[in-house]
Amino acid sequence: MASGGLTLRRYAAGRLLQAAPLLLGVVVVNFLLIALAPGDPVATLLGEYPAPPEYVARLRQEFGLDQPIPVRLALYVWNVARGNLGFSFAYRLPVAQLVVERLVNTFLLMATALTLAAALGVGLGVAAARRPGSGLDAASTGVSLAGYSIPDFWLAQLLVLLFAVALGWLPAQGIRSVREEYTGLAAALDVGRHLILPALALSFRYMALIARLTRASMLEAMSQDFILAARARGLPERLVLVQHGLRNAALPVVTVIGYNFAFVLAGSALVETVFGWPGVGRLLYDAILQRDTPVLLGILLMVSATVVVVNLLVDLLYAVLDPRVRY
Amino acid sequence: MPESLLEIEDLHTHIATPRGIVRAVDGVSLSVARGAAVGLVGESGSGKSMTGFSVLRLFPTARARIVRGRIRLASRDLLALDDEAMRRVRGGEIAMVFQDPATFLNPVLPVGRQVAEAYAMRHGWPRAREHAIEALALVGLPDPDRLYHRFPHELSGGMRQRVVIAMATVCRPLLLIADEPTTALDVTIQAQILDLLARLRRELGMALLLITHDLGIVAEVCETVAVMYAGRIVESGPADRVFAAPGHPYTQGLLASALSVEETRPITRVMEGTVPDLAALPAGCRFHPRCPFVMDRCRADDPPDLTLAPGHVAACWLHDAAMAGGPAR
């Protein structure tokens, strides 16, 4: 399989090369959109206090806002190409440092939500497909419909009302407790407790999507001849279901989970805002309000790069799941 | 008389469809002796495959159900077994080989693993791997150690069918049901697969129930033949005798249409019509609308099995002692 590994590596390298012009496009379009949009970062930064015009001019010059847009764009692209994402107007910190810090928190939330969605969604879908038309199938359809229909920020507020306000079981805000200082395992558990509600809110829609897709995909797989052949060999139903059914049904499900990564990322912005989760979504929201252009551009660029990488990983995973796929 | 392995008595298998009950198997009785090869012949839609599936109590559709009859394997009543016990019979004592090896193999699992599964389930994994490699070698596949890890799409049609046969025989079944095992294959490969089935039968001492529409294959592989028409067996007996002196007009028609391809007969006989709708069978003999010798009695009464010679029976009024004169050929 040495040659197979080599072609796989070459394929991955090719895909990453293709990503370079794509990311350049992302940078240029985003830069122009933001530069042409109304709103002035300096004005926002100064707030309603009257500032001397000399000070405003100095700030403009310091931020490079006195230059014409094409020059600013060229400078920005040049800096990004060298790995410099610039400085935040609002935080006075390097954008890269700021975004990476927040991205870690977002990935923790997303990974938890996606794992939850995949586990529950696949389980529900398989159970529903086992007996189409049964009560369980109808229930799963109902849950899925609810999942599609309920906006996640509203679900987030419902969850807060129930589990944080009414029952008082779980914290409603932030990533760790403010009043206590935890270390080691206790700190991790504390983060875990804070993670439950936002992860649930974020995962519900994807759980519903994955459940529907798994059900359809399983029904298709289970009607194949090789399922009959597996049963004719006397394999226990559990093995037929997982080894032969789900193994074949997994392909479209994995694709959808992967390609929805970008949407989960977008969805996390709302959920992070509701729960005060210090993630990149929250940062994005704040950056937009503050007209913090470098941060905004940095987030969009890094998120785009992440989506490119995740999609590549999904395509590579395909080859692992389906031996017929070759690159 | 050799010891009987499989005994099917008055089997009725029905399929519920929106158009009504389809009597796919409608009173079939059939027996297979230990180590024997029996051919079950008929046009598509005659119920021959459903007879095979009934023996495994496993159907391609959830709408099919055995409603009446008895199926015994080595004097064990298969229809009385609970689901779990029946599951262990499948792939253990009775195995099945299917028509199209391309679709009956799981595309995402290595073939060796699929061969090993049935054995592993009964005796555990480490030994199953060895047995699977042995089974792959037994069906004549080269380099079974490496083949074990290959995927179905990497094999040719003939190799795939050998894998399917290895899958079925890995647990050394007493009975192998082969449902059109060569139909999807090239003619040259067909002969090889038939040779393989004959050899496995000898070497493993297993009985073979060969389901096919191809009389040539039956003549080559089987000692006994049963001809099915519209859910019933209309004629059965020793293969050489049935082929030499077919007693049922349907068998005669099948033989005539098969032989006319090879022999240069002046008249090519093709049977008119098609198998009747199994949800709405004609009254009397179910073959009478297509029968060239149809009599009044055929339209009214269903003919019983009538003995033509020892072991050779046909369900046709032409052989009723009261009706003088043999079948006109």
Oligomer: heterodimer
* Class from secondary-structure proportions of chain A: mainly alpha
Main sheet overview of chain A: none
The outline of chain B comes out as globular
Task: Give a description of the structure.
The complex is a heterodimer of chains A (327) and B (329). Chain A is mainly alpha-helical. Chain A has a domain at 100-292: MetI-like (MetI-like fold, Orthogonal Bundle). Chain A has helices spanning 2-36, 41-46, 53-63, 69-81, 95-130, 135-149, 152-166, 184-222, 225-232, 237-259, 261-275, 280-289, 293-321. The two termini of chain A are 13 Å apart. Chain B has helices at residues 48-56, 83-89, 111-123, 125-138, 144-147, 157-169, 187-204, 215-221, 239-244, 249-262, 296-300; strands at residues 4-17, 20-33, 37-41, 64-73, 76-77, 94-97, 175-179, 207-212, 224-229, 232-238, 306-309, 312-314. By secondary structure, chain B is an alpha/beta fold. In chain B, strands 6-7-8-3-9-10-12-11 form an 8-stranded mixed beta sheet, with helices on both faces. Chain B has a 4-stranded antiparallel beta sheet with strand order 2-1-4-5. Among the domains of chain B are: 101-172, no CATH class; 249-319, no CATH class. The longest helix of chain B is centred in the middle third of the chain and has 18 residues, at 187-204. At the A-B interface, helix 9 and helix 10 of A face helix 2, helix 3 and helix 6 of B.
